[in-house]
Amino acid sequence: MKTRCSFCDDHAIYVLKSRKIRLCKKHFIDYVRTEVENTIYRFEMLKNVKKLLIAVSGGKDSVTMLHILHQVCKELNIEMLGLVIDTGIGEFSRRQVDVAITLFKMFKIDYRVESFSSYGIDILRPDLERKVRRPPCSICGIAKRYIMNKVAIEENCQAIATGHNMIDIAQYAIANILTGNVEYLRKLLPKTEEGPKMARRIRPLYFIDEKETKLYVETLRLPYVSETCPLAHKRDTMQDTVRMFVRELEDKHPGSIRHFVEKLSNKIINMLPMEEDRYSTCKICGMPSKGEICSFCKIRMALRE
Ligand code: AMP
Ligand code: FES
Ligand code: ZN
Ligand code: ZN
């Protein structure tokens, strides 16, 4: 016998165990949208934003975010600009760019495609790790964040939206606690403040489980890239272990990770001393930097040597 939705007669496709409710297609989609909208309003993510840069990798998370934000921005009369970064990882990156462009066209959103290659970064270079002394995923992360901010500044976007979900946030937070990098926790807020040449970063999927974004794109039959990055095996293995732990905890104790990110976004972060965010200007590229030369320029210099 089919299980019924807690709100109507249709059959349920999702059980929200933490709230003990079952949801049909319609009520599941409504639930995800409402959660995301509440997060946006609660943290004033779009306050004073006239133009929003939305970073779309084509994965389930950023596709869900795009689908919801495109509606929200329309209602609030906020201009949107799509961004997809071609990281140059063969067929995987080509699929990401294709899917993102298909969606930007579908939602009639202007977009930019940026490539690592035009910044002199070849993530598949055999001597990459030796020259830069960082694993490829770390280089990729620094380069993506730099490019996102650069595009936002060039295009007069006041904020950048990324599709980090609740499991990503909990994983980064717990890994940083384990390694003692507690000052990094401030970077995991749902919204980070803007500064000179630095756009605000917002994470509208802060309270959404990765299982929910998968079901969201599949229910609405939105195109998305289901493959994981082929370089994922080179990732920090501790991060993978922490992720498995986070997943298991949420599955065995529904709502526990949501509770954790909730506490992280207010209580835990407020207990940390204020970090002096003393940014100066990178003497090579002129973008914000903690040291004389920013991490992105350091990577590019190491690759040129
Ligand atoms: P990840 O670090 O791969 O989990 O990605 C987190 C978020 O960063 C995604 O949800 C996107 O919003 C953004 N992002 C990651 N990769 C790309 C990319 N290649 N192009 C544009 N945005 C990206
Ligand atoms: Fe950048 Fe995997 S997506 S290394
Ligand atoms: Zn229903
Ligand atoms: Zn620089």
Task: Write up this protein.
This protein has a single domain, classed as Rossmann fold (3-Layer(aba) Sandwich), CATH 3.40.50.620. The protein is 46% helix and 12% strand. A hairpin with a 4-residue loop joins strand 1 (14-16) and strand 2. It is built from 10 helices and 10 strands. By secondary structure, it is α/β, with parallel strands linked by helices. It has helices at 25-42, 60-76, 90-106, 128-132, 136-154, 166-178, 210-219, 237-252, 256-271, 295-304, and strands spanning 14-16, 21-23, 51-55, 79-86, 110-115, 159-161, 191-192, 200-202, 280-281, 288-289. The N and C termini lie far apart (66 Å). The chain has a 6-stranded mixed beta sheet with strand order 5-4-3-6-8-7, with helices on both faces. Helix 1 packs across helix 7. The structure holds adenosine monophosphate (AMP), FE2/S2 (inorganic) cluster and zinc ion (2 copies).
Beta content comes to: 5-15%
How many helices? 10
Q: Which molecules are bound in this entry?
A: adenosine monophosphate, FE2/S2 (inorganic) cluster, zinc ion
Instruction: Identify the CATH homologous superfamily.
Output: HUPs
Could you list the spans in which at least 5 consecutive residues all have pLDDT below 50? none
CATH topology, by name, is Rossmann fold
Distance between the termini: 66 Å
List the helices and strands and how they pair.
Elements: E1 14-16, E2 21-23, H1 25-42, E3 51-55, H2 60-76, E4 79-86, H3 90-106, E5 110-115, H4 128-132, H5 136-154, E6 159-161, H6 166-178, E7 191-192, E8 200-202, H7 210-219, H8 237-252, H9 256-271, E9 280-281, E10 288-289, H10 295-304
Parallel strand pairs: 3-4, 3-6, 4-5, 6-8
Antiparallel strand pairs: 1-2, 7-8, 9-10
